[in-house]
Amino acid sequence: SLFMQQLSFPNVGMATAYGFGSGIGWLLAIVGLAAIRERLQYSNVPKPLKGLGITFIVVALMGIAFMSFSGIDI
């Protein structure tokens, strides 16, 4: 909702569409992360990276992937 204030949409319809789109994007990211973490439980991850370490790496890679959707060249 802070981004919606900053963008100052001209009407309620655009703000609602932006809100739903943001929610769907968040849902995709969380479901994707949950699926990847589920698969990581059965994979051979080095002991120092188990748990939070591999999660940070996965989140960083997902962030790079989602940045490409917004048109940022990597």
Rg from alpha-carbon coordinates: 16 Å
Largest beta sheet, briefly?
Answer: none
Please report the distance between the alpha carbons of the first and last residues.
28 Å
**Uncertain ranges:** none
Percent of residues in beta strands: under 5%
- Gross morphology is elongated
Q: Write the H/E string, N to C.
A: HHH
Mean pLDDT: 86
Secondary structure topology:
Elements: H1 2-7, H2 12-40, H3 52-69
Helix pairs in contact: 2-3
Concise description?
With 74 residues, the protein is an all-alpha fold. The chain has 3 helices and no strands.
Task: Write up this protein.
The protein has 74 residues and is mainly alpha-helical. The protein has one domain. The protein is 72% helix and 0% strand. The chain is built from 3 helices and no strands. The longest helix is centred in the middle third of the chain and has 29 residues, at 12-40.
